[in-house]
Design brief:
alpha+beta, five-stranded antiparallel β-sheet, two-stranded antiparallel ribbon, 4 helices, 7 strands, globular
């Protein structure tokens, strides 16, 4: 059971979040995300991992344990909505929020450490770079063992829209 979910977002994410979270409608997930969420999480070596990760190979050897956890728990958010249609951000954020809201309760049953899910989008509507304006985003999941691991503390420094959801077990 979740005690509480703390949310932190940067200025680029705020207007997108207000629209995406305005109604209580929780959209269905695309089949690949639904399968990933249904498979859930496993705990191994004191780390949480997606039971069906997108990455099928081990993380690169130069990554530390925290970076490896993030690498293994990265979920790509994609849409067929073109980058020229600003609604892609709302669509992908809703998918990311659905993934987070479904995985966080399970995650907190597997560990006493805070669990953080970070949702990021490739670009903000008012900061478009034509070379990086793709209708895509990502979800990352990791345990917070130290202040260094907490994305929420430096979230304002990101140019792309970023939202961090942190939960702890009761």
């Amino acid at each position: 059971m979740l005690d509480a979910v703390e949310m932190a977002m940067n200025a680029a994410m705020e207007p997108i979040f207000r629209v995406a979270d305005a109604d209580t409608f929780e959209p269905g997930l695309p089949p690949d995300l639904e399968e990933l969420v249904r498979a859930g999480l496993v705990c191994s070596g004191g780390r949480l991992y997606l039971a069906r990760p997108e990455h099928k190979t081990p993380p690169p050897g130069h990554l530390d344990a925290f970076e490896s956890e993030l690498w293994m728990n990265k979920v790509h958010l994609d849409t067929r909505t073109p980058a020229s249609d600003p609604s892609w951000r709302i669509e992908l954020l809703r998918h990311g929020l659905t993934v987070a809201r479904r995985l966080l309760p399970q995650a907190t049953t597997l560990t006493q450490l805070p669990v953080q899910i970070v949702i990021s989008l490739q670009s903000a509507p008012d900061a478009l770079d034509p070379e990086t304006d793709f209708a895509t985003g990502a979800v990352h999941l990791a345990l917070i063992r130290s202040a260094h691991d907490d994305f929420a503390t430096g979230i304002a420094d990101f140019e792309q829209p970023v939202l961090a959801m942190t939960a702890t077990a009761r």
